[in-house]
């Protein structure tokens, strides 16, 4: 009894461009994660400092505007 061989046309057809775009999408997702994680960590570690600096700049600008008018 012989084992039937697969013919050339059997199975799903996957083109090289489909494989390349899947790899590219994975690379883009990995790069996005690498770029996004450090700023998120910094914001979670230093929220009080960030808010202090933001409000300090806002109150400083308000003082200067009062002197002009």
TrEMBL record:
It comes from the Bacteria. The chain crosses the membrane at residues 28-46. Keywords: Membrane, Transmembrane, Transmembrane helix. This is Uncharacterized protein. It comes from Mesorhizobium tamadayense.
């Amino acid at each position: 009894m012989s084992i039937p061989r697969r013919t050339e046309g059997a199975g799903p057809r996957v083109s090289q461009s489909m494989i390349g775009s899947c790899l590219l999408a994975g690379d883009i997702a990995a790069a996005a994660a690498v770029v996004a994680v450090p700023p998120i960590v910094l914001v979670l570690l230093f929220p009080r400092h960030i808010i202090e600096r933001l409000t300090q700049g806002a109150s400083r600008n308000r003082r200067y505007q009062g002197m002009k008018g």
